[in-house]
Amino acid sequence: MLFFALNFLLGIMVFSTKNTLSLSIFEISLFFALLLAVLVTFRRQKSIAINLVIFMLGFVWMGLFSNQALQVNIDEKFFNTTINVIGTIEDIPKVGNNKTQFIFKASSPFKAKLKLSWYEKSRVKIHSGDQWKFLIKIKHNNSYQNEGGFDYEKWLFFKQFDATGYVKRSDSNQLLAPNTGLSIDLIRHKVQKRLVDSISQLEFMGVINALIIGDRSLVNNDHWELFKSTNTTHLSVISGLHIGLISGFIFLFSSFLWRQCRTCTLKLPASVIGAYFGLFSAFSYALIAGFSIPTQRAFIMASVVFLSIILRRNHNSWQLYGSALLLVLVSNPLSVFSVGFWLSFYVVAIIIYGVKQHQDKHWLFRLLYIQLLISLSTIPLIAWFFSSGSIFSPIANIIAIPVFSFITTPFSLLGIILSYAQLDLLSEFIFSVANQSLVYLSIFLHYLQSFEFNQWQYTPISVSALVLLIISILIGLLPSALKLRQVALILAIAALFQPHQQLKQGEVMIATLDVGQGLAQVVRTKNHVLMFDTGARYRSGFNMGEAVIVPYLQTQQINAIDLLIISHGDNDHIGGLDSLLKKISVKQIISSVPEKISTNSNLCKTKPSWKWDGVDFQMLNTTHDFNGNNASCVLKISTSKHSIILTGDIEKKAEQHLVNIWGKQLKADVLISPHHGSKTSSSELFLATVAPELVIISSGYKNRFNHPAKIVINRYKAHNIVISNTNCSGQIDVTLSQEITITHYRQAQKRYYWRQCE
Question: Helix 184-199 crosses helix 205-213 at what angle (to 10 degrees)?
């Protein structure tokens, strides 16, 4: 069963890496070749033939499931325009200070699953199951596509949303019918309301709420950062660990009680009755968590174990593991896009292996051994998914897992049960114990977090490096593999220290990051880093410094910036600055608006020119008295053969000034489109003087300014300029070396579930 499940998984994984849903001629040929191999080997090598068939079934199943998930029943005329939609609120709405986010199951004028935000200050409270009429504006699923960034587009596909959008202010927004029936989401909403009303004064109320109903929207940002920095976030919401522990405890407790009745055990074994209660408790806990995908996975895994006991089948642990894996993949093959899927099944596999080791040792030694085994063996996956981790993760989890498992989670669940039993005083006491356990734990985690070397980052590893690292760690941890330890060390070194391309003397790379409607560029020479603008910050608190720039810099192993240039003071150029400064060391800042920057900074004209690693940098607009967009710092970067101009948001007046001052010296191979391609910029004279071969536009997908303007695009085409736009290409890398090379992230990493360029 385990090999069947792994081959089914392999088929799913192969399809998940495709860049289109359709099959190429090569893929069709390969598919028929595998069918032929099955026919040839079926009689002599039956097991090989069966596994080949299962691999192909996994591939086909993922294709069918993906095709269905990508079928959007929304006519194009409804996108990017205001429409009235009728539908029902699903799940628990996430209410913040500035907005309410919720899932809306539209029923008219189309049927779709929408992810909506409501920003209106006078917005009313909405409840799960309520039927509403909203005036909304929606767009196709989209995300910022950059190295190291969160792939929101993949997450939307995984969650099977058809579109995203927001509610517009309108008198037509009205409640049509409140939810009067009984649904799980409504029950969860009422449980949350009871918690907010009764324990809102507790410091860790948000975590307690997350452990009871699986909704982490109330978790304090500081607490979330604390758990994240110590790799303990998996404990702060309902997970497979919690469901497994609670159902396991119910299994043991009910079995114990049943054994006290001799007559009862003669009619039905205690383990069987315990399995029934364990199965029921796992189902109940998953249900109250809204049967989200992680809890579905945990329930399936627990069900396989309990059903084997109920049916009195003697399966070994690996058979049960394989059965659970296969059931999860059949029920939802998109699970492979979930980090939780990989971590949960990987950790369970490590536990199955670990419990069989050192069985002659004390239980405490075995418990510590398994915890250390989990912490070390998960390093490769953490490196793969997050490119960062906590040095003290093993120590943090050794303390945090028992605290959450034996105090916080059970006391939180007991507290809500007592609350509904009208035992308010006892309920408050139990909740306070759960909260206090987290208070003491947070003190310990803060101590670990305080060490500067706690967090580590590195360049994302390849698939081959991931496999090598996992093998090396498993070999190193095998009790009987003392002679192979040197091999494990060699494999680990080969995995972590793979050679990667370095810039040479006289070369420069400019990464124009995909920050939507804004600008953020990272300029690198052999030994130096320059940052030009930092994207926007939004009223919700979301900002490009934290979401895009810092993750990109961390994946590039950049811990310090030599020079940061803020071209001017518009939000879409300066908004991410504060978040960037919190995480990355910046040696010097220059700007046209130093008064808007909290730390020490100077005017751009104070640094007219410099040279790094054989690359020349020239500040062009140092002799003007413009304000606003026209005051933007303009930088020309030149190698021995090529050059590029970074323009900020300059308009025609500043362009005219640059032409007058520099004349033919403005000639450049690459131009960053002034003001995101606005019709106020890219004048005929300026383009004729610069005469670029390539223009790069940084603009947001379907942005409200309609950048770039059609008249500007036509002007670029008239000058035979090649156009690249981040709203279509994602991150755009330009390297100036002997030749000019350009890489479009969306094209280089293309996936079938990503939005296609128009």
Answer: 160
Amino acid found at 672: I
Q: The tokens of 142 are what?
A: 């989209």
DSSP state of 408: I
Query: What's phi and psi for 473, nearest 5 deg?
Result: -70, -40
Show the low-confidence residues of the chain (pLDDT under 50): none
Rounded to the nearest 10 degrees, what angle do helices 363-377 and 463-477 cross at? 160
Phi first, then psi, for residue 332 (nearest 5°) are: -160, 90
Please tell me the pTM assigned to this model.
0.86
Compute the distance between CA of residue 666 and CA of residue 685 in angstroms, rounded to an integer. Answer: 11
Q: Are 752 and 21 in contact (CB under 8 A)?
A: yes
Q: DSSP strand E in 349-507: where?
A: 388-390, 455-457
Identify the pLDDT of residue 69.
92
User: Measured between alpha carbons, how far is 538 from 515 in angstroms, rounded to an integer?
Assistant: 12
By the 8 A CB rule, do 142 and 756 touch?
no
What is the rounded distance in angstroms from the CA atom of residue 636 to the CA atom of residue 644? 6
Strands (E), 576-669: 585-586, 589-591, 602-603, 609-612, 615-619, 635-638, 643-646
Tens-place pLDDT, residues 546-565 = 999 999 998 888 989 999 99
Residue with tokens 């977090």, as numbered in its chain: 449
Closest alpha carbon to 412 in 204, 232, 188: 204
Q: How far is CA 576 from the centre of its chain?
A: 19
Coil vs helix vs strand at 42 = coil
Question: Can you tell me the distance from the alpha carbon of 683 to that of 716, in angstroms, rounded to the nearest whole number?
Answer: 10
d(CA 513, CA 521): 6
Tens of pLDDT, residue by residue over 518-535, are 999 999 999 999 999 999
Q: How far is CA 370 from the centre of its chain?
A: 28
Q: Which two tokens stand for residue 421?
A: 């039993």
Domains and CATH numbers, the chain: 2-69 (no CATH), 76-181 (2.40.50.140), 210-457 (no CATH), 463-496 (no CATH), 508-748 (3.60.15.10)
539/117 Cα distance (integer angstroms): 13
DSSP 8-state class, residue 124: P
At residue 143, what is the residue type?
A: S
Q: CA-based Rg of the chain, rounded to a whole angstrom? A: 29
- Answer whether 214's CB lies under 8 Å from 238's CB: yes
